[in-house]
Each structure stands twice: as structure tokens, then as C-alpha cells.
Amino acid sequence: MKFQLAINMERITSGIDMRDVERHTLEMVQIADGGGFEIAWAAEHHALEMTIAPNPFQILTWWAAHTTNIRLGPAVVVAPYWHPINLAGEAALLDLYSGGRLEFGIGSGAYQREFDRMQPGLKQTEGYKYMQEMLPVVKALWQGDFEHDGEYWSFPLATSVPKPLQKPHPPIWIAARAPVTFDYAVKNGCNILSWPLTRPISEVELYKERLESALTKNPGKSRPIFATMRHTVVYDREEDWELPVRAAMLQLGQFENLFKNLGDIVNGFPKKVGLSELENREEYDPKMLHKNLMFGTPEQVIEKLRIYAKIGIDHFTYYASLGLGLKEQKHSLELFVSEVMPEFK
Fold first, then answer.
1. Is 122 helix (H, G, I), strand (E, B) or coil?
2. How confident is the model over 273-278, as a mean pLDDT?
3. DSSP β-ladder status, 265-266 and 172-175
């Protein structure tokens, strides 16, 4: 099993200094680079303090200048917010600046709030159509001159400048949860990023079944890399289990506000939703969070990861951003590198 890091520039409250967040984020990526992580991912979100990422390529270029080996990618660029020529060029430029380390993650977008501001009138549930038109166009632009007359974009002959260093193109990843997306990934040679949120291990098994079903429906297609992401915190003592759970409940309360488009966001900070009031409140039970998320001592996390390896997960994505203190985040990652990863080499 290989390991990836997903980390955001994140402020849960205005009391956290942006400069501290900036330094911390880079230091976490550098720890992952030195510790043998395969990929570091940066998100794309807009006007939200909990994920400060208006252009993931800016973040990734910054990381590239301060790392050596770790591969770098957006997880994910939101197709409806981009023009294909712009996206192809930005991605290729990062591949050039990083020495051919780009992993290209593309998706359809998560929050209706963002769609209402970035693409007014577009429903989040329709975003996948933009992604499915965008991806083949970007790949064609990476190859050379190309003109396009599509449903969402049309342009005369153009090309990507620069071209990616990696040939025929950088590895491509898509965020997948629904069966149709797994099928699209297999058909189009895309690796898979999956996120079972706070749901139990059965959700991970379900996604693996969807991958196997897609492979069966598409004989002759290559098996993609299958990655699963979980919020991850490693700590020294078993009795410390409540610290990451409390942090997660605060962040997840904000996430539910965005996911359900409840509003009540002031200066980029979403109000925390009372988790006990939600229809899906059982997904936020503290003991359930401790069990389902990658929380635990090094020994407990190793035991959990062995279950993922047995299911057939190729890459585990360590999701570092959940409102935990910066010092605790760094200690957790250091423990993961020194105590957990050696068990999977």
C-alpha cells in the first residue's frame, strides 16, 4: 500500500493567523515528501476559510519549489469553473515547474453554494456533464492543435502551451462515488479517488465492488489505481481518542452546512450545524467517528490500515485537515511516518 496526503490551508475560526496556516501547510507537505508519501493533493474551493484554495495550481507550484520527490496534484479541479484552454495550460505549466510530478485530478464540484457564485444557475448535480466534456478536450489540447464545438465550450484551433513533460499525459484521477463514475473512470483510463466520509468500512467495500463491476463491464481495460481517503490522526495514548473526535465534529458541522447548502456563512466561515439535529446524525456519533475514521495510536492505525489493504486499496489518502491544532497535526503526521508506514513497505 502506498500513501497520499490531502491537506488544505484551513481556518476554522478567525483566531488562527493565516501566516501560521501557510507555514504549517508547507511543512506538512515537506514531512510527507521526506517520509515517502507518493502524492500530495490540494483542493479547489472558493470563498471558504475552511479550504483556502482559489487556484490549486498556485498552491502546488509553491509546494513544488520546496519539495523533491513527492508527486503533486489538484484533488480536484472543478471542471465547471474552468475553460479547457486555461486548464490545460495551467496543469501543463505545473508539470513543467515540478519536473514532471503532476497528478491531474478532476471532478464536478461539491457545494451548491460555490456553484451559485462561480456558475450561477448551474445545479451541482449537473456538474459531472462538464467534467465529462472537459477531460477529453484537455487531453487533446495537451497533444497539439485542436478545435472544439461542444455543449458547454466551443473554440477555434488552439493548443496547450506549454505541453506537459509526461507523455502521453500526466496520470489522471477522478473523484468517484456513484457507479456511473466508476464506469467512466475505467472506460477512460482514470485512477480513482474515493472518500467514504464518516461511513463505516462497508462503504469502502461498496466502492471496491463498484470498481470490480466497472472492470467486468469493460473487458480489456486496465485496472486503475484505487485510493481511499479518511480523516487521519495518530496519537500516543489511547486515552487521547476524544481530541481528534471533538475537532472532527466541529469541522464536520461546518461541512454539513455547506453540503446541505444551509447558508449562514459570515466572512467565509460557515456556522456549525448542530449534528444532533441532522437526519444523518448517526454518522457523527463520537464513538462511531473514532471507529470509522483513521484515528488511533500507531498500533490501532496499523490494524485499521491492514483491513483496507485486505479489501484491495492501492493507495490510502491521509486527510490531515479536520480542525485539529497545528502542533497536533504535525505530531500525528510524524508518528504516521515513523511508526505506521514502515509496516506497509
1. coil
2. 71
3. unpaired
SS3 285: coil
Query: What average pLDDT score do residues 340-345 get?
Result: 96
Using one digit for the tens of pLDDT, what is the confidence trace for 74-132?
999 999 999 999 999 999 999 999 999 999 999 999 999 999 999 999 999 999 999 99
The three cell numbers locating residue 135: 477531460
Measure the CA–CA gap between 108 and 76, rounded to whole angstroms: 8
Q: Identify which has the larger pLDDT, 320 or 250.
A: 320
Which three cell numbers, joined as nine digits, stand for 124?
451541482
295: β partners: 233
* 3-state percent helix, strand, coil for the chain, nearest multiple of 5: 50, 15, 35
Q: How confident is the model at residue 68 (pLDDT cuts 50, 70, 90)?
A: very high
Identify the CA nearest to 297 among candidates 231, 232, 237.
237
What pLDDT score was predicted for residue 260? Answer: 83
Scored b (16 or more CB within 10 A) or e, 16-52 reads beeeebeebbbebbbbbbebebbbbbbbbbbebbbbb
| Neighbour count for residue 99 (Cβ, 10 Å) | 11
Which grid cell sits at 266? 459570515
Strands 2-6 and 315-319: parallel
Architecture, CATH, for domain 2-344: Alpha-Beta Barrel (3.20)
Tell me the C-alpha distance between 110 and 127, whole Å: 9
Q: Is 287 helix (H, G, I), strand (E, B) or coil?
A: helix
SS3 at position 48: coil
DSSP state of 125: G
Yes or no: say if 242 and 286 are a contact pair by the CB < 8 Å rule: yes
Mean pLDDT of the chain: 95
In DSSP terms, 174 is beta-bridged to: 106, 192
